[in-house]
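To the team - magnesium ion complex, inputs and output below.
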Amino acid sequence: MSEKIKGIAASAGIAIAKTFILKNPDLSFERSTVSDKEAEKKKLNDALEVSKKELTSIKETAERELGKDKAEVFAAHLMFLSDPEFVGQITSKIDDDSLSAEAALDDVSSFFIQMFESMKDNDYMRERAADVRDVSKRLLAHLLGVSFTSPASITEETVIIAEDLTPSDTAQLNRKYVKGFATDIGGRTSHSAIMSRSMEIPAVVGTKTVMAQAKEGQLAIIDGLNGQVILDPSEEEVAAYKAKQAAYKEQQAEWKKLVSEPTKTADDAHVILGANIGNPGDVEGVVNNGGEAVGLYRTEFLYMGRDKLPTEDEQFDAYKEVLEKMANKPVVIRTLDIGGDKKLSYLPLPEEMNPFLGFRAIRLCLERQDIFRTQLRALLRASAYGKLRIMFPMIATIDEFRQAKAILLEEKEKLVAAGTNVSDDLQVGMMMEIPAAAVLADRFAKEADFFSIGTNDLIQYTMAADRMNEHVSYLYQPCNPSILRLVSNIIDAAHKEGHWAGMCGEMAGDATAIPLLLALGLDEFSMSATSILPARSQLLKLSKEELAKHKEAFLNLDTAEEVLDYVKTKMI
Ligand code: PEP
Ligand code: MG
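Output:
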């Protein structure tokens, strides 16, 4: 009998393959002493050898499939396993204190981690702490005989089953082999879901139980269209899903016919359909799906899946590549938005009670100006190669925007004085994702050149409902009148100052929200590349002028349900 598990449809499409279960290993152990020290040292050596073999193979695969950059971190891990200082100290603890290999490793790795982390002024050394932590985890897993897997090691067609995928796990996925994934936690706007859409991997998240129910290597269907996972499907189910897969491909072929068409509505109004990307490699998908802009480049992914900060030149290359590939179409690049659910192993931040309300994004960049200025210089240098718009994330106050813009202008002046070419058509805008800014949009519109509405965060902050928490997902209501009024306020404020307003939150690609946003006058809709053609096809059938007549009515409804009902009966 097959087992069906409901979840949230995170990325469209259907995948059928064997499961690969990505577990967080249980690495707890009792501290103990040993009498046979030689046996303990042999155990250590065996674990070292297995870890090295494993890392060498992962490194080779990563180099081949993902490029040298992403493989660097594994080279650093290998170096540690051969470091006489590190290994020698573990052996001495076994010899001198009769500690078990696990306890000896724990002591030595804690010592190294602390030492590296205390070198406050030396980024390179601090980054080594993350390496020690990672490599020690692998070694400890082997000492304990617990299996340890990395998504980068997958080299067969599979669907991944996991409790959650961190953004850096997702960054390591190889789309050639990973056909789909399903997780216990997360929602449509968690970053693993967003990444899966930009990588065009079918995904179902927030199932709560898939980890407990799935077995390694069994056949599974991931239905990213309806949010369902089927374990051990019957032959009939496989056949039915293969037919669905084919029908979806056919529908995609229909949409593809619109790839070079302009985006216009039935009454000939024009809006821009842009795409959200995480990596320069995603631009190919934007172009293939007829994107007219990059409405959001989440640069934080450039900082992930590696073991140190990207240099100015590395960043310059990435930004230039995106601008050139977009061939003078607008590209909105957002400055670093780290924190919340996006962490960097080499940039340890203090543990926080509420990371989504914490030290993140522009707050961190204004304090770590070394990181911020490096990124701004790379952006300014790249601006000469296309139509760049720079955007600051998580702006709550006018003062933050002014500070960020002043730093940008300072860097610009320095570059220009040094003879570097910087575009003179540079717009500087901001994400509208904090209610305080949304309410004060009229004032912000006097300072910023454009707004891009980040509904993923704007909804979570307005409704006080964590976007990652499936228990409060019922409060995550894009069409609640409170959200629509904020969106309307933001768009009107931008227009009043002669600016454009876009939306790069997931709401922009939602077929039910699109008529409402068109009615409110949104100028640019930025979404996963795969949503562009379905949106273009939908817009062709809608009249902006007719829809605008409904604006007052739907803004004055009481509930999200009433709005949804209104759209379905009167606006589509
Ligand atoms: C948003 O908050 O809507 C957004 C686009 O940014 P992110 O999802 O990266 O937080
Ligand atoms: Mg956001």
